[in-house]
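Lab meeting prep.
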Amino acid sequence: MNYNREDSLNFLLTKVIKLRRKKLHTLLSEIDMHPGQHAILYLLWEEDGQTQKALCTKVMIKPSSTTVVLQRMEKNGLVTREMDLEDKRISRVYLTDKGKAIKPMVDQTLKTMEEKCYKDFNEKDLEAFKSFLKRIEKNLEDE
């Protein structure tokens, strides 16, 4: 089998990710959010008061990038950062009332994004696609 760049998994995934990121950026900007903020918000909606380091690890971005995202979120009134009471070297991130209240808008934005991505998929196709992606993920994690 010859290698065809445009049919390669790497090329197709990269292209889809870039297109998705561009569309998501547009949708998030409509609710005055920047890329990356929604991922941190979802983690905090699940468990408020996580450490900055834990958030950085879970969203898989560099500590410096996490700091920039959190600074922007603080400026927009979505989160506050406070020193841990037991260890002053640790910074904990908490949702503000505004950060809690924005959840329905973020949910709707991401639902719109999902619907756009999967509009021509039936349930069987979607389940197969997710299964394939999970298998690829497992293959890459096993190495």
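Slide two material, second protein:
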Amino acid sequence: MLMLKWLHLWLVDKILLVLAWMILGNIEKYGLKRPSVGPLELKNTQGKTHVLDIGAIEKIRSKEIQVVPEIKKFSSSVVELVNGEKLEIDSVILTIGYRSNVPYWLQVR
């Protein structure tokens, strides 16, 4: 990232967080938790960072997709959440993490 040539990582992270807030608004009101550190620090310390799909954000805002707390258990067409709430569902999108396999694609065979 070009800004890292002149600015400290923590400052670039703060700038990115402000820009994300300006573009996306307060996503926590939709049940999406922001990490406690910025994306560059996450990438440096954990080797990965959070990704938000703009199309998914719009569906969450319009309530076509509902973000809920952790799932305790599944049964036929009902999901029980850790807070005791039970929901009748059509489908579940699990956001359990992402690991890029791009390096695998780029290997010479």
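Talking points for slide two:
The chain has four helices and three strands.
The first strand starts at residue 71 and ends at 75.
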